[in-house]
Automatic annotation (TrEMBL):
Cited InterPro entries: FKBP2/11 (IPR044609), PPIase_dom_sf (IPR046357), PPIase_FKBP_dom (IPR001179)
GO cellular component, one term: endoplasmic reticulum
GO molecular function: peptidyl-prolyl cis-trans isomerase activity
Residue ranges annotated for the PPIase FKBP-type domain, each copy included: 93-182
Keywords, in A-Z order: Isomerase, Rotamase, Signal
Gene3D superfamilies according to UniProt: 3.10.50.40
Protein name (database record): peptidylprolyl isomerase
Reaction catalysis annotation: [protein]-peptidylproline (omega=180) = [protein]-peptidylproline (omega=0)
Secretion signal span: 1-26
Classification via SUPFAM superfamilies: FKBP-like
Pfam families the UniProt entry points to: FKBP_C
Keyword Signal: yes
Keyword Isomerase: yes
């Protein structure tokens, strides 16, 4: 249910409650003044109990979960195919040879593809040679493994994007395949 529909429903319930209270008050006030005094002194607690009962019977507004935005979203990593024989899991400082296809999450427009070039991208993991979403999302990958990375803007190109192919604030989707994982020859502290 959308937020607007929930608010309309909640307002209708509040309006109905208001009319119930008005009707109850008019019934209580329809007696003589002496009756009114006795009602106030003898049943004031009952009136409050009745109001609490009505309030407790109203549907509760569901808590709205915070929506992921470009600056609060999390990196999502999906394993599409596990490696048959994993000799080495990628670590910071390792050299990775990666094939990939990159698309925009919104609209699915492809912006880059190493398969069409016929050459995997070669880079050192964890030293900022690629976007942060790759440095984080490829840790532990094995040669032959395929993953799907959904990378929020703050772990990709941020609010500036990478014009003209990647708009500002874009969430990116990468289908990646580790062709080779080679041990690094330098220590990386990140």
């Amino acid at each position: 249910m959308t937020r607007v529909k929930m608010l309309v429903k909640f307002n209708l319930v509040i309006l109905a409650l208001f009319f119930c209270v008005v009707i109850v008050r008019s019934d209580l006030n329809s007696g003589t003044e002496d009756d009114d005094d006795s009602l106030d002194s003898n049943t004031g607690g009952a009136k409050m109990e009745y109001k609490d009962e009505i309030l407790n019977s109203l549907p509760k507004m569901p808590e709205e979960k915070p929506k992921e935005t470009a600056t609060t979203g999390k990196l999502h990593i999906g394993i599409k195919k596990r490696a048959e024989n994993c000799e080495r899991q990628a670590q910071k400082g390792d050299s990775l040879h990666m094939h990939y296809k990159g698309t925009l999450k919104e609209g699915g427009t492809e912006f880059d593809n190493s398969y069409t070039r016929g050459q995997p991208l070669v880079f050192t993991l964890g030293i900022g040679q690629v976007i942060k979403g790759w440095d984080q999302g490829l840790l532990g990958i094995c040669a032959g493994e395929k993953r799907k990375l959904v990378i929020p803007s703050h772990l990709a190109y941020g609010e500036n994007g990478s014009p003209p192919t990647i708009p500002p604030g874009a969430t990116l989707v990468f289908e990646v395949e580790a062709v080779k994982v080679e041990p690094g020859n330098r220590r990386v502290d990140l």
